[in-house]
Protein backbone atom coordinates (compact mmCIF):
# COMPACT_ATOMS: atom_id res chain seq x y z
CA UNK A 1 0.00 0.00 0.00
CA UNK A 2 1.38 3.42 -0.94
CA UNK A 3 1.75 6.35 1.40
CA UNK A 4 -1.22 8.61 2.04
CA UNK A 5 -1.91 11.78 3.97
CA UNK A 6 -2.50 11.19 7.66
CA UNK A 7 -6.01 12.65 7.64
CA UNK A 8 -6.97 10.38 4.72
CA UNK A 9 -5.70 7.37 6.67
CA UNK A 10 -7.80 8.38 9.69
CA UNK A 11 -10.85 8.68 7.44
CA UNK A 12 -10.31 5.30 5.76
CA UNK A 13 -9.70 3.70 9.15
CA UNK A 14 -13.15 4.86 10.24
CA UNK A 15 -11.96 7.27 12.94
CA UNK A 16 -13.69 10.36 11.59
CA UNK A 17 -14.02 12.49 8.46
CA UNK A 18 -10.93 14.01 6.85
CA UNK A 19 -11.88 17.47 8.08
CA UNK A 20 -12.32 16.22 11.65
CA UNK A 21 -9.04 14.31 11.27
CA UNK A 22 -7.30 17.60 10.48
CA UNK A 23 -8.71 19.03 13.70
CA UNK A 24 -7.43 16.02 15.66
CA UNK A 25 -3.96 16.44 14.16
CA UNK A 26 -3.80 20.17 14.86
CA UNK A 27 -5.05 19.57 18.42
CA UNK A 28 -2.15 17.20 19.12
CA UNK A 29 -4.25 14.04 19.54
CA UNK A 30 -2.44 12.03 16.83
CA UNK A 31 0.93 10.28 17.04
CA UNK A 32 2.93 8.62 14.26
CA UNK A 33 5.54 6.12 15.40
CA UNK A 34 5.36 7.51 18.93
CA UNK A 35 5.75 11.19 17.96
CA UNK A 36 2.93 13.71 18.17
CA UNK A 37 2.07 15.21 14.79
CA UNK A 38 0.44 18.66 14.63
CA UNK A 39 1.26 19.69 11.05
CA UNK A 40 -1.02 18.83 8.14
CA UNK A 41 0.50 17.18 5.09
CA UNK A 42 2.34 14.38 6.90
CA UNK A 43 2.12 11.08 4.99
CA UNK A 44 2.05 7.58 6.45
CA UNK A 45 2.42 4.05 5.15
CA UNK A 46 -0.40 2.02 6.77
CA UNK A 47 1.66 -1.19 6.56
CA UNK A 48 4.78 0.22 8.24
CA UNK A 49 3.81 3.20 10.41
CA UNK A 50 2.12 3.06 13.82
CA UNK A 51 -0.66 5.65 14.05
CA UNK A 52 -2.31 6.42 17.39
CA UNK A 53 -5.27 8.63 18.28
CA UNK A 54 -5.59 9.50 21.94
CA UNK A 55 -3.00 6.76 22.68
CA UNK A 56 -5.01 4.06 20.87
CA UNK A 57 -3.39 2.27 17.92
CA UNK A 58 -5.36 2.56 14.67
CA UNK A 59 -5.56 -0.04 11.92
CA UNK A 60 -6.74 0.51 8.36
CA UNK A 61 -10.15 -0.97 7.62
CA UNK A 62 -10.71 -3.50 4.85
CA UNK A 63 -14.45 -4.12 5.40
CA UNK A 64 -16.95 -1.33 4.88
CA UNK A 65 -19.63 -0.95 7.56
CA UNK A 66 -22.93 0.92 7.22
CA UNK A 67 -25.15 1.45 10.27
CA UNK A 68 -28.50 3.14 10.99
CA UNK A 69 -28.86 4.53 14.52
CA UNK A 70 -31.91 6.02 16.24
CA UNK A 71 -30.17 8.85 18.08
CA UNK A 72 -31.81 9.92 21.35
CA UNK A 73 -31.91 13.52 22.49
CA UNK A 74 -28.90 14.55 24.56
CA UNK A 75 -26.25 12.80 22.44
CA UNK A 76 -23.74 14.67 20.29
CA UNK A 77 -23.08 13.54 16.69
CA UNK A 78 -19.32 13.51 17.06
CA UNK A 79 -16.36 11.13 17.30
CA UNK A 80 -14.96 12.94 20.33
CA UNK A 81 -16.53 15.57 22.57
CA UNK A 82 -15.19 16.02 26.11
CA UNK A 83 -17.83 15.91 28.88
CA UNK A 84 -20.61 14.99 26.44
CA UNK A 85 -22.43 11.77 25.56
CA UNK A 86 -21.54 10.89 21.95
CA UNK A 87 -23.38 8.68 19.47
CA UNK A 88 -20.44 6.25 19.24
CA UNK A 89 -21.17 5.27 22.85
CA UNK A 90 -24.38 3.64 21.58
CA UNK A 91 -22.78 1.43 18.90
CA UNK A 92 -21.13 -1.61 20.47
CA UNK A 93 -18.90 -2.93 17.69
CA UNK A 94 -15.13 -3.33 17.63
CA UNK A 95 -14.69 -1.52 14.30
CA UNK A 96 -14.41 2.24 14.14
CA UNK A 97 -17.30 4.09 12.50
CA UNK A 98 -18.25 7.75 12.39
CA UNK A 99 -21.45 9.70 11.67
CA UNK A 100 -22.46 10.92 8.22
CA UNK A 101 -23.68 14.47 8.74
CA UNK A 102 -25.09 15.64 12.04
CA UNK A 103 -28.16 15.77 14.23
CA UNK A 104 -27.93 18.48 16.87
CA UNK A 105 -27.88 17.50 20.52
CA UNK A 106 -31.56 18.38 21.09
CA UNK A 107 -32.79 16.41 18.05
CA UNK A 108 -33.42 12.69 17.66
CA UNK A 109 -33.91 10.10 14.96
CA UNK A 110 -32.03 8.57 12.07
CA UNK A 111 -28.27 8.95 11.89
CA UNK A 112 -26.04 6.95 9.53
CA UNK A 113 -22.58 5.81 10.57
CA UNK A 114 -19.86 4.26 8.42
CA UNK A 115 -16.14 3.60 8.05
CA UNK A 116 -16.38 4.33 4.30
CA UNK A 117 -14.59 7.67 4.05
CA UNK A 118 -15.49 8.28 0.41
CA UNK A 119 -19.19 7.66 1.02
CA UNK A 120 -19.07 9.94 4.08
CA UNK A 121 -17.61 12.76 2.03
CA UNK A 122 -20.01 12.39 -0.86
CA UNK A 123 -23.17 12.09 1.27
CA UNK A 124 -22.11 15.05 3.41
CA UNK A 125 -21.46 17.33 0.44
CA UNK A 126 -24.30 19.79 -0.36
CA UNK A 127 -24.19 18.92 -4.06
CA UNK A 128 -25.41 15.37 -3.35
CA UNK A 129 -28.98 16.68 -2.91
CA UNK A 130 -30.23 13.64 -1.02
CA UNK A 131 -33.53 13.99 0.80
CA UNK A 132 -33.82 14.14 4.59
CA UNK A 133 -37.27 13.86 6.15
CA UNK A 134 -38.21 15.10 9.62
CA UNK A 135 -41.20 15.09 11.97
CA UNK A 136 -41.56 18.39 13.80
CA UNK A 137 -43.63 19.26 16.87
CA UNK A 138 -44.21 22.94 17.67
CA UNK A 139 -44.96 25.00 20.76
CA UNK A 140 -48.22 26.29 19.26
CA UNK A 141 -50.51 25.73 16.29
CA UNK A 142 -49.05 26.77 12.94
CA UNK A 143 -51.29 28.36 10.28
CA UNK A 144 -51.35 27.17 6.69
CA UNK A 145 -49.69 30.35 5.50
CA UNK A 146 -46.65 29.72 7.68
CA UNK A 147 -46.34 26.16 6.38
CA UNK A 148 -46.47 27.53 2.84
CA UNK A 149 -43.59 29.89 3.65
CA UNK A 150 -41.53 26.97 4.95
CA UNK A 151 -42.22 25.08 1.75
CA UNK A 152 -41.38 28.01 -0.52
CA UNK A 153 -38.09 28.85 1.19
CA UNK A 154 -36.94 31.57 3.58
CA UNK A 155 -33.97 33.95 3.74
CA UNK A 156 -31.32 32.56 6.06
CA UNK A 157 -27.62 33.11 6.73
CA UNK A 158 -27.09 35.31 3.70
CA UNK A 159 -28.90 33.03 1.27
CA UNK A 160 -32.30 31.38 0.89
CA UNK A 161 -33.42 27.91 1.88
CA UNK A 162 -34.36 25.62 -0.98
CA UNK A 163 -38.00 24.75 -1.61
CA UNK A 164 -39.13 21.90 0.66
CA UNK A 165 -41.95 19.39 0.83
CA UNK A 166 -44.19 20.14 3.81
CA UNK A 167 -47.15 18.05 5.04
CA UNK A 168 -49.32 18.90 8.02
CA UNK A 169 -49.93 16.11 10.56
CA UNK A 170 -51.93 18.11 13.13
CA UNK A 171 -52.29 21.67 14.39
CA UNK A 172 -48.82 21.60 15.98
CA UNK A 173 -47.08 18.88 13.99
CA UNK A 174 -45.81 18.56 10.42
CA UNK A 175 -43.36 16.63 8.25
CA UNK A 176 -40.76 18.37 6.12
CA UNK A 177 -38.39 16.99 3.46
CA UNK A 178 -35.18 18.95 2.87
CA UNK A 179 -32.42 18.58 0.30
CA UNK A 180 -29.90 20.60 2.27
CA UNK A 181 -28.64 20.75 5.83
CA UNK A 182 -27.78 24.19 7.16
CA UNK A 183 -26.91 24.43 10.85
CA UNK A 184 -30.11 24.02 12.93
CA UNK A 185 -32.02 24.85 9.75
CA UNK A 186 -35.53 23.70 10.69
CA UNK A 187 -35.38 25.40 14.09
CA UNK A 188 -34.28 28.65 12.44
CA UNK A 189 -36.99 28.39 9.78
CA UNK A 190 -39.69 27.81 12.37
CA UNK A 191 -38.55 30.82 14.39
CA UNK A 192 -38.79 32.96 11.28
CA UNK A 193 -42.52 32.16 11.03
CA UNK A 194 -43.12 33.01 14.70
CA UNK A 195 -43.04 29.60 16.36
CA UNK A 196 -40.69 27.30 18.33
CA UNK A 197 -39.69 23.67 17.82
CA UNK A 198 -40.53 21.42 20.78
CA UNK A 199 -39.20 18.20 19.28
CA UNK A 200 -37.45 17.31 16.03
CA UNK A 201 -36.98 13.75 14.74
CA UNK A 202 -35.34 12.68 11.49
CA UNK A 203 -37.20 9.72 10.01
CA UNK A 204 -35.50 9.24 6.62
CA UNK A 205 -32.21 9.88 4.80
CA UNK A 206 -32.35 9.18 1.05
CA UNK A 207 -33.64 5.58 0.77
CA UNK A 208 -33.00 4.73 4.45
CA UNK A 209 -36.01 4.88 6.81
CA UNK A 210 -35.96 4.98 10.60
CA UNK A 211 -39.01 2.71 10.83
CA UNK A 212 -39.62 1.08 14.20
CA UNK A 213 -35.99 1.14 15.37
CA UNK A 214 -36.14 1.90 19.14
CA UNK A 215 -34.47 5.02 20.51
CA UNK A 216 -30.79 4.36 21.24
CA UNK A 217 -30.73 1.20 19.10
CA UNK A 218 -28.88 0.55 15.86
CA UNK A 219 -28.81 -1.93 12.99
CA UNK A 220 -26.69 -2.72 9.95
CA UNK A 221 -28.13 -1.52 6.66
CA UNK A 222 -29.69 -4.18 4.47
CA UNK A 223 -27.97 -5.09 1.17
CA UNK A 224 -30.68 -3.18 -0.73
CA UNK A 225 -30.19 -0.09 1.45
CA UNK A 226 -26.42 -0.21 1.02
CA UNK A 227 -26.77 -0.59 -2.74
CA UNK A 228 -29.13 2.40 -2.90
CA UNK A 229 -26.67 4.61 -1.03
CA UNK A 230 -23.65 3.48 -3.02
CA UNK A 231 -25.44 3.98 -6.34
CA UNK A 232 -26.46 7.49 -5.31
CA UNK A 233 -22.92 8.68 -4.58
- What distance lies between the first and last C-alpha atoms, to the nearest angstrom? 25 Å
CATH topology of the largest domain: Alpha-Beta Plaits
Total count of strands: 17
What is the CATH C level class of the largest domain, in words? Alpha Beta
Q: How large is the count of helical segments?
A: 6
User: Mind telling me which CATH architecture of the largest domain this is?
Assistant: 2-Layer Sandwich
CATH evolutionary superfamily of the largest domain: Pseudouridine synthase I, catalytic domain, N-terminal subdomain
Write the H/E string, N to C: EHHEEEEEEEEHEHEEEEHEEEH
Helix content: 10-25%
Profile the largest sheet: 9 strands, mixed
In short:
With 233 residues, the chain is an alpha+beta fold. The chain contains six helices and 17 strands. It has three domains: 4-58, Structural Genomics Hypothetical 15.5 Kd Protein In mrcA-pckA Intergenic Region, Chain A (Roll); 66-125 and 211-232, Pseudouridine synthase I, catalytic domain, N-terminal subdomain (Alpha-Beta Plaits); 131-205, Alpha-Beta Plaits (2-Layer Sandwich).
Amino acid sequence: MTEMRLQKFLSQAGICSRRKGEEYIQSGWVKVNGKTVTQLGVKVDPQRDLVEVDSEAIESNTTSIYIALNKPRGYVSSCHQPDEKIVLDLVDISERVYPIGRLDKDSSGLLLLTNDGLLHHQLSHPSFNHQKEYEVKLAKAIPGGALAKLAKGLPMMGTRTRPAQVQRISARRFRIVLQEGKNRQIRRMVRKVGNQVVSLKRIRIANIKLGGLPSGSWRHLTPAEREGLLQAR
